[in-house]
Amino acid sequence: MIRVLIVDDSLFIRTILRDLLKGSPDIEVVGTAVNGIDALGKISELKPDVVTLDIEMPRMGGLEVLEALQKESTRPKVIVLSTLTSRQADMTHRALRLGADDFMLKPRDVPNVRGIERELVQKIRNLVALPTIVKPPAIRRKEADAVVLIGSSAGGPSMLDTLLSALPPDLPAAVIVTQHMPEGFTASLAERLSRISSLPVKETANGEALQTGTVVVSKAGFHSVISRAVSNTGRNHGRVVHSTAPRLHAVRPAVDTTFTSAAHVFGPRTVSVLLSGMGNDGGEGTLAVKNAGGTTMVCAEDDCLVYGMARSALARNCVDRVVPLGSLAHEIARAVGRLEVNYV
């Protein structure tokens, strides 16, 4: 059993989270705490495996709890629950730097809070199951002439854990992750993913060149448009250009924007993957990758919280493979490896 302690000053949130987790046979809620002082006492007493931690609480907040846990030789995994404000985005980033293991956006109303059950359970299970990543020695990077594109939305962050933690550190391609997320939170996502991946992960910067064996997460609030740059040897490389063009599918960044622009630059040296997500974003982009001669994949439906994005691509008959989540990293590495063999 995975032992969970819920820490939140809201009785409503504590009650809802306890009820959501009751239905999971492998999870036991061993207690709740109303503030940081209460939490530290119960962590010592109850020895939970995972703590869900609110940030702003009376007497002692979540950041102070994390500072105190840094002094302990053993500590539980911590998921920070954050509301959708710029202040909370900044505090979430600070929480990760203080040792929080993951974060989750906390809806304000009852229907949406109840809708986070599957994602919360996935995050808890992931934290206790993810292998420890040994960072390899520094690898010399070069401008990439191949790219792996990953698009996801609702349910995507937990899948990104599994996928990125399994990619090889010497992957001879750049990786671009476009995850639908509120402004301010993609930097925290990138920082957290960098801990569990053998590849370095960072949020996109305007004008940066894409490099082999690195992962960039599209910055929320901007479309990540990939522009062409040509080396002295005639190979196509790509650079990230942040665009404030109107939202596409009501989101910015849009997966379609990144996929389509990258396909124009990298052509057949493009591999695209769609994970969990609601809506149609990603369908047109996957078609663009296919038309450019690239390799297209979507994750199997059983592994996705929502299958709208993948289904949008499947409806266009442009998907080469439907792959279980546990096999995606291997399939990506194999597809990129074939590009290296065939490239002249």
Q: What features would you describe in this structure?
A:
With 344 residues, the protein is α/β, with parallel strands linked by helices. The protein has two domains: 2-129, Rossmann fold (3-Layer(aba) Sandwich); 147-342, Rossmann fold. Helices cover 38% and strands 22% of the residues. The protein is built from twelve helices and 14 strands. The strands form three sheets. The protein has a seven-stranded parallel beta sheet with strand order 8-9-7-6-12-13-14, with helices on both faces. It has a five-stranded parallel beta sheet with strand order 2-1-3-4-5, sandwiched between helices. Strands 10-11 form a two-stranded antiparallel sheet. Helix 11 links the parallel strand 13 (295-299) and strand 14 (321-323). It is globular and about 60 Å long. The mean pLDDT is 92.
SSE order and pairing:
Blueprint: E1 2-7, H1 11-22, E2 27-33, H2 36-46, E3 50-54, H3 62-69, E4 77-82, H4 86-97, E5 102-105, H5 110-114, H6 117-129, E6 147-152, H7 156-166, E7 174-179, H8 186-196, E8 201-203, E9 215-217, E10 223-230, E11 236-243, H9 255-266, E12 270-274, H10 283-291, E13 295-299, H11 308-314, E14 321-323, H12 325-342
Parallel strand pairs: 1-2, 1-3, 3-4, 4-5, 6-7, 6-12, 7-9, 8-9, 12-13, 13-14
Antiparallel strand pairs: 10-11
Structural class designation: alpha/beta
The end-to-end span amounts to: 53 Å
Q: Which range does the strand content fall in?
A: 15-25%
Second CATH tier, the architecture of the largest domain: 3-Layer(aba) Sandwich
Radius of gyration: 20 Å
- Characterize the overall form: globular
* CATH class category name of the largest domain: Alpha Beta
Main sheet? 7 strands, parallel
Q: How would you name the CATH homologous superfamily of the largest domain?
A: Methylesterase CheB, C-terminal domain
The averaged pLDDT comes out at: 92
In quaternary terms, these chains amount to: single chain
Q: What is the count of DSSP helices, taking H or I runs of 4+ residues? A: 12
What share of residues is helical?
25-40%
Please provide the ordered H/E string of secondary-structure elements: EHEHEHEHEHHEHEHEEEEHEHEHEH
Q: Quote the CATH topology of the largest domain.
A: Rossmann fold
